[in-house]
Amino acid sequence: MRNYAIVTAAYWGFTLTDGALRMLVLLHFFRLGFSPFTLALLFVLYEAAGIVANLVGGWLAVRFGIARMLAIGLATQIAAFLLLAALDPGWGLALSVTWAVLAQGIAGVAKDLTKTASKSAIKLTAAETGNAALFRWVAWFTGSKNAMKGFGFFLGGVLLEALGFRPALIAMAGGLALVLAGVVLSLPPLLGRAKASRTARELFAKNRGVNLLAAARIALFGARDVWFVVGLPVFLYAAGWRFAEVGLFLAVWTIGYGAVQAAAPALVPRSSDGLTREVPAARAWAAVLAAIPAMLALFLASDLPWRADLVVCAGLGLFGIAFAVNSSLHSYLVLAYAGSEKAAEDVGFYYAANAAGRLMGTLASGALYGWGGLGACLAGSALLLAIAAALSLLFPTVARAEPAAAD
Asked: What percent of the chain stands above pLDDT 90?
């Protein structure tokens, strides 16, 4: 419990500043006159870097210990803050964008190193408590993290207004340095250390359950970000919403989404082996989720005399509930399928797929919105979710037996 509490607190501190960073960048560069699509491009390297960071981070966490990788992730985020704070307002547009994209890429590496280490630590700290406790711990960790990200959106706006762009970044770097010091002084440095995989095949293809979950995760998070990153903010702004109102809606949606994630164990039937009832629940919730954006896309294509922005927000509220349960189930299942000795590698591979889905969704969001508006984004979301639901039919209902360790 002590290690779980330390890891959770550290990840809260990281996520709070990561959410604030996203809002700082969005608001600051929006005030400088950047278009919504250009703003989305600022986050492309942030998402792309996460693919490699998760894969490498999982391997390194097994090789050198989870606590060390958590500390490296926090230190990398501090470096990203300081790099972005060095941006000179007098630079030209091209240099400013390049500098911001580079800093965001470093922040993406930091986020996924920290996430992989933190989720892997939960697998280790909950290993002796059984699947029921593991689901509760994962759900609370994931849900509280997303709620903290929503508060971070609000914090970013407040810091930008009160301190300005550069002082806000420096203040966040200082706060995260205190979190880093706490991790270094509190966690066993060799937590989670084991014999790392030596070949690509051993790293990527050793667990059918994790592989299927990774494929479903690409579709799941691509389906969210295809409307969340560019489509919805631009749609609401075009409907007459002020930018602050758009940001507030995204923050409330994220906080509510996190609250549902934390409560997911109460909404899912449980089994003693942790899979025979949970996997069918994942399939059912995936089907429910796929129907929501499909219905919203049909509404936007119709001539019904209702305010489109309000209907879309209500529909996406329902989407957030179903998506939160799906995401929480996936986050639990990957740890249920993962082996104990090399859990960090399985988790890293899984979250690399998560980052790939976000990258795909980010790029598709701008492209589909430019082609067919929010309706096209929602149709793309429905298609991706149908793929995720189909993949869930293949999820194993029996965990793979972990081989005995070699002498």
From this structure: 28
